Amino acid sequence: MPIEVQPSINLRSKSLRSFRDRYDAEVCVRTYLTGFKDEGWLINIPLYAISRIADALKGRRPS
Question: What is the pLDDT of residues 16-27, one digit of tens each?
């Protein structure tokens, strides 16, 4: 499962989207500085909650 770490609030994930399109990844994870957001194919997790990735992924199957 791909995990991208964004050091700033700029959330353009060209490389993550390219990976998803190329390898048909069902779920991707991005950690960054703002709050939690589930966009279906992309789960955004705040950096302060990175230890909770497993909880955010419960019930999902990675490709």
Answer: 888 888 998 888
CA distance 45 to 37: 7
Which whole-number Å values give the CA distances from 39 to 29, 36, 46, 51, in the listed order? 10, 10, 14, 20
What is the spatial distance between Cα 29 and Cα 16, in angstroms, rounded to a whole number? 9
Which helix (H) or strand (E) element contains residue 3? strand 3-5
Q: Which residues contact 53 (CB under 8 A, 6 or more apart)?
A: 3, 29, 31, 45
Taking the CA atoms of the chain, what radius of gyration do you get in angstroms? Answer: 11
pTM of the model: 0.75
